[in-house]
Amino acid sequence: MRKNIVAGNWKMNKTLQEGVALATELKSIVKNPNCDVIVGTPFIHLATVAELLKGSPIAVAAENCADHASGAYTGEVSAAMVKSTGASYVIIGHSERRAYYGETYAILKEKVQLALANGLRPIFCVGEVKEEREAGRQNEVVKAQLEGSLFGLTAEEFAKVVIAYEPVWAIGTGLTATPEQAQEMHSHIRGLVAAKYGREIADGCSILYGGSCNAKNAASLFANPDIDGGLIGGASLKAEDFKAIIDAF
Ligand code: PEP
Predict the structure, then answer these.
(1) CA dist., res. 14 & res. 22, Å (int)
(2) Please, what is the angle between helix 239-246 and helix 16-29, to 10°?
(3) Measuring CA to CA, which residue among 105, 124, 118 is closest to residue 77?
(4) Which residues of 27-50 are buried (b: 16+ CB within 10 A; e: fewer)?
């Protein structure tokens, strides 16, 4: 059956030294979690944090990777480079990347394919903005995001993808989707995956919720049948807060 996962997304926070301190503290307090645990760090932290967390139950993710394999793309970091740090996951399609860096469905499709080709598991983010939810369009928006970037994958490739449903209106705002809203969307996503890849792959697909998830609301979200954990921004920046969310499982 599918895995429960709690994944942190540090975003553009923490110097290298602060990141090492956070990872060190996490390593000492996260011992036998009842779910898979991942920390998503800035590129420059990856190699050091991956080395530090070796032998611990915590895996490491990049927050992005390039949409080209290699070459003259100054400032970019390829999926192969991410893999070479010891990271095993990469967050792709975060709404901040879509909104601020113009990442289209086609660009994200390339990134997903490069991640998989280099042995990284994508944590692929989808989610509607406030206006789209207010117009009742959330289901079609998320469907288009999945179809536009993921549904060209083979079943074997898709089986390695983790999906994170992150309603954009809930990210960093303190507004959390209700457990009912989240469950409804997660069930919609699983249904779309089942229609495309079959029931077995859909049942094996971990679908995480993200958007102001914290120690107080995690348990009520994770209690739902189609919510397999969380992608955590703000509350992943303090070891104890992140641990409390892990302990919700
Ligand atoms: C995120 O950015 O992935 C996220 C879920 O952020 P926050 O938890 O801070 O809302």
Answers:
(1) 9
(2) 40
(3) 118
(4) beebeebebbbbbbbbbebbbbbb
8-45 residue pLDDT tens:
999 999 999 999 999 999 999 999 999 999 999 999 99
pTM: 0.98
CA of 48 to the centre of ligand 1 (A): 23
What's the pLDDT tens digit per position in 183-228?
999 999 999 999 999 999 999 999 999 999 999 999 999 999 999 9
For residues 201 and 189, what is the distance between their CA atoms, to the nearest angstrom? Answer: 12
Q: Is 166 a catalytic residue?
A: yes
Residue with tokens 């079943």: 155
Q: How confident is the model at residue 244 (pLDDT cuts 50, 70, 90)?
A: very high
E strands present in the chain: 5-9, 36-41, 58-62, 89-92, 121-126, 162-165, 207-210, 229-232
Q: How confident is the model at residue 83 (pLDDT cuts 50, 70, 90)?
A: very high
| Location of structure tokens 């989808």 | 126
Rounded-to-integer distance, Cα 141 and Cα 133, Å? 9
Residues near ligand 1 with C-beta < 6 Å?
9, 166, 171-172, 210-213, 231-235
Does 95 appear as a known binding residue?
Answer: no
Closest atom of ligand 1 to 11 CA is 2
> Annotated binding residue at 10?
yes
CA of 232 to the centre of ligand 1 (A): 5
Residue 25 known to be catalytic: no
From 171, 173, 242, the mutation candidate for ligand 1 (largest count of ligand atoms within 8 A of CB) is 171
